[in-house]
Write a structure and sequence with these properties.
The chain is of the alpha+beta class. Helix content is about 35%, strand content about 30%. The protein has a 5-stranded mixed beta sheet with strand order 3-2-1-4-8. A 5-stranded mixed beta sheet has the order 11-10-9-12-13, sandwiched between helices. A hairpin with a 2-residue loop joins strand 1 and strand 2. The N and C termini lie far apart (about 45 Å).
Amino acid sequence: MLLSPQRVAIAPAGYYSEETARGLRPDSPDFEVVLQQAVDMLKGHLQVDQRISGFLRRRQWAVWIDERWCRLWCQTWPDTLTDAKELEAYVRAEFERRFEVDGDQWDIVTPGAWPGRMFMCAALPKGHVAALREVERELKLTFGDIAPFPIAEMKASMTLWPKAPFMFFGSSNSLQTPAFLCYRTRVVDFALLPHSPSTHALAHTLFGNRGSIAPRWSVSVTHDRNTSISTLLGRGQVILIREPIQILEPNSAVLAQSGLS
């Protein structure tokens, strides 16, 4: 089969299967075009065997979206807010300020929100969500989990978290590396950093400048993005490297060049 059962990965580089990677070049990140490629492959897969496809249709599918179509960030629930509606308005305002976009055009999800603590937020354009829902209706499928790929990758990879604060670096696409700062089974900070030999040092400096918890470990996915997606689609185990933090701070020129100074 070209597809991993109940799993779909959609990225600017195209649609990925267990055995092959097909689609657009990374410099052509048109969501609708790449989504149509995924739909065409899904149709072909579901037509291979009506008995098997009928069984698969009744189950929920997970959809992983490349982070270049999403917005990811960490937010704190201020003590001054008393209910979820106030938090929703606050998060939307912070989202608009941080990314300089119209929050009304995005679906924002805040799982794990709790008063007084930091939590991970994710946003996807409403037009992309509507397109995915149309695919559900067309193919009679159910997308039970729509998530940015870095989050899906981290959840699949980290079966056991270090007790001390640590940085988690997901697989890199052609341009960026997702970096998470984690502590006590929670993500407390996040950044998309330029993919370069200085990425780890940049993350360490950036999280430190934000006043985040000082990490003591670094956990990195060894695969590139194509391999990581193919591995997870095949339900394989992503290979990680875990090592203590021993990072020299990048100089000001490197920070300025990365846009993080």
